[in-house]
Design goal:
Blueprint: H1 5-9, H2 15-25, H3 29-49, H4 54-63, H5 72-75, H6 80-90, H7 94-105, H8 109-133, H9 138-147, H10 162-165, H11 169-172, H12 174-220, H13 226-253, E1 258-259, E2 265-266, E3 287-292, E4 295-300, H14 304-313, H15 316-319, H16 323-326, E5 331-332, H17 351-363, E6 368-374, H18 381-404, E7 408-413, H19 427-430, E8 435-441
Parallel strand pairs: 6-7
Antiparallel strand pairs: 1-2, 3-4, 5-8, 6-8
Helix pairs in contact: 2-3, 3-7, 3-8, 3-9, 4-6, 4-8, 7-8, 12-13, 17-18
Length: 442
């Protein structure tokens, strides 16, 4: 199976970065997330469509050492590698792409343009790093990009298409389009054939019934009940025929997710037989100023910083008799997230909340804390405990480096011990169990 580079890139565009971008651009987190979901496959598609362009391959090679990944929000818009690359990938279609994404996600054109630079930077930076880590030369990078042509066709969210961007979808996704057309044509042929066969069977059955009824009438004379029963039976037969065809059409038009030989998921559904219940969209969280003794920290109202400061100001910590009183109240980090599978690399945007925690501890030098690391229920539990412990230790070391190490009494990884979401749930649902937390301690 081909490597899906989008899976690699998503690690750079996690919840922490979405939140930071929403705050910086003045947009909702849901709008930013929706825009990224549309831009990412478009950018990867542009790279795949230019897999054999030496300039594109050279840009990816340079990106691995340019520091793009370390400053996506601050440096993407002015980075010459990204500016030149976007011109190569989309030419005069950049404006159409930005307009479409802005309209689709409900954010401004300026925000959509900034996100295009950001997503492009995350993409070439990640691909460049992967290429460097795996010793891929120019031909290896081209091969990797070419492999994406069979993967990305199904990843654009509903409501978007490359055709709507004016990007020549037939050239990028021609194979997927052909597959869909073939499946649709086959389905139509099957329906037509089934209807014709059923009609023929009904006609034949009706003819046999008529002949039998006529024989009975000839044997028994006029005035038979068959004179009124025959039309009734024919009507029943016709009704049965119509019912079966409706049932067949429903079965045919609700087929979904037929995989082709390249691994591309193709939706063959022509109509929907039911409307799913509408799920209320949670209100987007927005960073606000949190007052720390006159110093303003950026954080969520009701988030980690806000709760911790309120507790300390209430003298709840000072009045706590011992550690037993404090051990059951944990404060989850809102922004601190590790890259998937890593215990030493934080996602972009995580550092700000660590600095907030340092500021809180310095403002209340008598307070002490403990760090907790958690995973979801997937994977080997021993590995989960090891990973969560390493992450907790990493946070503890970072706080010590910032000068508040004496206030951190311990760090512990709990693995999936306290996870609540089933291992078979979606990744988005299980994300709630993958977290880092802090509690006060004595």
């Amino acid at each position: 199976m081909s490597l899906n580079v989008i899976d690699l890139i998503k690690g750079q565009l996690g919840p922490a970065l979405v939140s930071q971008a929403a705050s910086q651009f003045g947009e909702s987190e849901s709008g930013i997330s929706k825009a990224i979901g549309g831009l990412l496959p478009a950018v990867v598609g542009g790279l795949a469509n230019n897999a054999d362009n030496p300039g594109v391959v050279d840009a990816i090679t340079k990106a691995s050492s340019s520091g793009i990944l370390g400053n996506l929000l601050g440096g993407s818009s002015s980075n010459p590698i990204i500016t030149t690359l976007l011109s190569s990938l989309f030419g005069d279609k950049v404006g159409g792409l930005v307009n479409s994404i802005a309209s689709f996600s409900g954010i401004s054109n300026n925000s959509a343009g900034s996100l295009l630079n950001l997503v492009t930077g995350a993409t070439v930076g990640t691909v460049g790093k992967y290429a460097a880590d795996n010793n891929l030369g120019a031909s290896g990078i081209s091969g990797l990009l070419n492999d994406q042509k069979g993967i990305i066709s199904s990843l654009l969210p509903a409501g978007l298409s490359l055709a709507s961007f004016g990007l020549g979808a037939e050239n990028w996704f021609g194979q997927a389009k052909e597959t869909v057309s073939s499946v649709t044509s086959t389905a139509k042929d099957n329906i037509a054939e089934g209807v014709a066969t059923a009609r023929e069977n009904v006609n034949e059955g009706a003819r046999e019934i008529r002949e039998q009824f006529e024989n009975n009438n000839n044997n028994k004379g006029g005035g038979s009940i068959w004179k009124w029963l025959l039309p009734l039976l024919l009507l029943i037969a016709a009704g049965y025929f119509l019912w079966k065809q409706c049932e067949k059409k429903q079965t045919t038009t609700t087929m979904t997710s037929t995989s082709d030989s390249t691994g591309t998921s193709v939706d063959t559904a022509a109509t929907s037989t039911s409307t799913p219940a509408t799920t209320a969209t949670p209100a987007a969280k927005t960073d606000e100023n949190i007052d720390l003794n006159g110093v303003m920290l950026k954080g969520y109202k009701g988030g980690m910083e806000d709760q911790m400061i309120s507790f300390l100001k209430s003298e709840g910590y000072k009045n706590a008799a011992d550690d037993a009183v404090l051990k059951d109240k944990w404060y989850d980090f809102d922004h601190v997230n590790f890259k998937i599978g890593s215990s030493t690399e934080l996602e972009a945007g995580s550092q700000g909340q660590l600095e907030n925690l340092v500021a809180i501890l310095k403002a209340f030098p008598d307070s002490k804390i403990k760090i907790g690391g958690y995973t979801d229920k997937t994977g080997n539990e021993a590995s989960n405990v090891k990973l969560s412990q390493s992450r907790a230790d990493f946070i503890k070391a970072a706080l010590a480096k910032a000068g508040v190490g004496a206030q951190v009494l311990g760090a512990e990884g709990y693995g999936s011990k306290f996870a609540k979401v089933d291992a078979k749930a979606s990744d988005a649902e299980r994300a709630a169990d993958r977290k880092m937390s802090v509690r006060f301690a004595k």
